[in-house]
Write a structure and sequence with these properties.
Length: 208
């Protein structure tokens, strides 16, 4: 079976780690920096990093409209941390000039867990990801404050001071997590996304 071709938006952030995790999870993973490279992938990961920078670079590299168009056409996208912010229709505590892709109908709060706890780890259960709770790493992470009717909450923090916060969501083929599964060696979130891409009809690389 042909491996699904999955791009990692390579403007800024932890691109290499996602490429490695996707490859280990069975994808043909490639960096995406140009519209022509985007044309060639069946799914896209937006990595963690800095959403204000990714927003700016998406315009400079002329990727904003092509990504919005692929999202409208049903391409699966997974955003982690800054990537979650880039997939939110509304951002609190963002910069006035930052702009996301036409993504998940939700409100996220940027840097929500507070500067005192810039980074922390907590268990998260994720619906659709078997094998028990996920050890999640949060780095200046957003949380989700509101979801629209079409959005499924698939993950909440299960313990500690941030218990019950929404940190993973899905709307159709769009998936977002506040945390960084690419840093822990647990491939289950990437495997979930690779399966989603594999199951999406109209994959470019299945067409002759
Ligand atoms: N705080 C960052 C932002 O606003 C996200 C942090 C991360 O991706 N680790 O984009």
């Amino acid at each position: 079976m042909t491996a699904p071709v999955i791009g990692v938006l390579a403007l800024q952030g932890d691109v290499r780690e996602h490429l490695a995790a996707l490859t280990a999870a069975g994808a043909d993973a490639r960096p995406v920096r140009r519209p022509a490279e985007l044309d060639d992938v069946d799914g896209l990961v937006i990595p963690g990093g800095e959403s204000t920078t990714i927003s700016k670079l998406a315009d400079i590299f002329e990727l904003r409209d092509p990504i919005d168009k692929r999202i409208a056409d049903g391409m699966p996208v997974y955003g982690s941390c800054a990537g979650m912010i880039m997939l939110a229709t509304e951002v609190l505590d963002g910069r006035p000039d930052q702009r996301g892709f036409s993504g998940i109908e939700m409100t996220v709060r940027r840097n929500a867990f507070g500067r005192q706890v810039d980074s922390f780890e907590a268990p998260v259960t994720i619906a659709g990801v078997p094998g028990g709770s996920f050890h999640a790493v949060f780095i200046r992470a957003p949380w989700v404050e509101r979801v629209g009717a079409g959005v499924e909450v698939i993950g909440t923090v299960t313990g500690g001071p941030a218990a019950d916060r929404i940190v993973a969501v899905r709307q159709g083929n769009l998936v977002a997590t506040s945390f960084h599964p690419e840093l822990t060696g647990d491939l289950r979130v990437h495997a979930y996304f690779v399966d989603l891409v594999r199951a999406t009809p109209g994959r470019r690389h299945l067409r002759a």
